[in-house]
Write a structure and sequence with these properties.
330 residues, alpha/beta, eight-stranded mixed sheet, two-stranded antiparallel ribbon, 37% helix, 15% strand, binds nicotinamide-adenine-dinucleotide, oxidoreductase activity, 3-oxoacyl-ACP reductase, SDR_fam
Length: 330
């Protein structure tokens, strides 16, 4: 019996890329899936039922159950209809995965209002739009799993101000939902995924690879550490009963591994018995707060494990290993 037998899932953006792999994995583990996908271009333009239909066919081919939904997560009523469709078709809703996404990269000083709005509408408002009805249902039934895809860009990609803000907003909304819904047995976690999909093909360096090899990077990814399907096992675990105690966490997925990310923690503090002057604070910042350390910039992010040496890892068999940060004394 699969880990998700008897469960019903909604996967937004399930027609392509990382969402497609997640929809297939949830179905392979026994969940009945509503595969939502607008079939939009990378910039959010147009619509096409083809990608969702292709995922549906792949799920059916592996013996799973699914239906498609072609609505936009950016549309509040359409998002409500996704939850209704899950209830009407499969009689429940246990899992929501928000993987729909678009890109409109531009430096902050050149960004148009439309570029800002559409990216935030799909990623951040889209998450609210599905969570509003989904959490109402999950609160009643006292159970549910929410997995939201954010991005390492949440920590400040210079060329993606709209996307960075939306993804940081997703982390905040997920933390809030985790805190609000814990008492109803509902968990909310974030995954910062990676995978060479068309999103990565759109980067300028990918064009070079295409010119040199005749293939886009996404066409080289299958079975490699860059395969977008590598994200699905983590999401499937988080969607299962086995993850009942995993709540309010942020994971990153890259390569054949998963990183658990600590929430921001206090680094240093200055205090007085009375209020500070700006000059006094400036002096104390230089002399004490930042004297013995260099506060790290927001990026690069979650890749500090790349600096570990082979001795830092503990082998656990079957060519797998782990590393856990030792708790500091304080
Ligand atoms: N690929 C990566 O390396 C990477 C890195 C960090 C974060 N992410 C995030 O992972 C998620 C999936 O990305 P991907 O690389 O698989 O992208 P993708 O473009 O391959 O797939 C995204 C899907 O979302 C759909 N979509 C777009 N707007 C929609 C809307 N309004 N309503 C419903 N569906 C809509 C698209 O039609 C598309 O099929 C996104 O949230 C993305 O921001 C991806």
């Amino acid at each position: 019996m699969g880990m998700l037998e008897g469960k019903v899932a909604l996967v937004t953006g399930g027609g392509r890329g990382i969402g497609r792999g997640i929809a297939l994995s949830l179905a392979a583990s026994g969940a009945k899936v509503v595969v939502n996908d607008l079939g939009a271009g990378l910039a959010g333009d147009g619509r096409d039922s083809g990608p969702a239909e292709e995922t549906l066919a792949a799920i059916k081919a592996q013996g799973g159950k699914a239906v498609i939904n072609g609505g936009s997560v950016a549309d509040y009523d359409a998002a409500n209809a996704m939850i209704e469709q899950a209830l009407d078709t499969f009689g429940g809703l246990d899992i929501v995965v928000h993987a729909a996404g678009v890109l409109r990269d531009r430096m902050i000083f050149n960004m148009s209002e439309e570029e800002w709005d559409i990216v935030n509408a799909v990623h951040l408002k889209g998450l609210f739009n599905v969570l509003r009805p989904a959490t109402a249902r999950m609160r009643q039934q006292k159970g549910g799993r929410i997995i939201s895809l954010a991005s390492g860009s949440a920590y400040g990609d210079a060329g993606q101000p709209n996307y960075s803000a939306a993804k940081a907003g997703i982390i905040g909304l997920s933390y809030s939902t985790a805190n609000a819904m814990a008492k109803y047995g509902v968990t909310s976690n974030v995954v910062l995924p990676t995978g060479t999909t068309r999103m990565i093909d759109s980067k300028p360096e990918s064009k070079k690879i295409h010119d040199e090899t005749g293939k886009w990077p996404s066409e080289h990814a299958k079975g490699t550490p860059k395969d977008p399907d590598n994200v699905a096992p983590l999401v499937t675990f988080l969607a299962s009963d086995r993850a009942a105690s995993v709540n309010g966490q942020v994971f990153s997925s890259y390569g054949f591994g998963y990183t658990l990310i600590e929430p921001p923690r206090t680094l240093a503090r200055l205090e007085g018995d009375t209020a500070w002057t700006p000059e006094g604070l400036a002096n104390a910042y230089d002399s004490y707060m930042a004297a013995d350390m260099k506060p790290r910039p927001a990026m690069p992010f979650a890749r500090d494990v790349d600096d570990l040496t082979p001795e830092d890892w503990t082998e656990i068999g079957e060519k797998r290993r782990y590393w856990v940060r030792k708790e500091d004394s304080k």
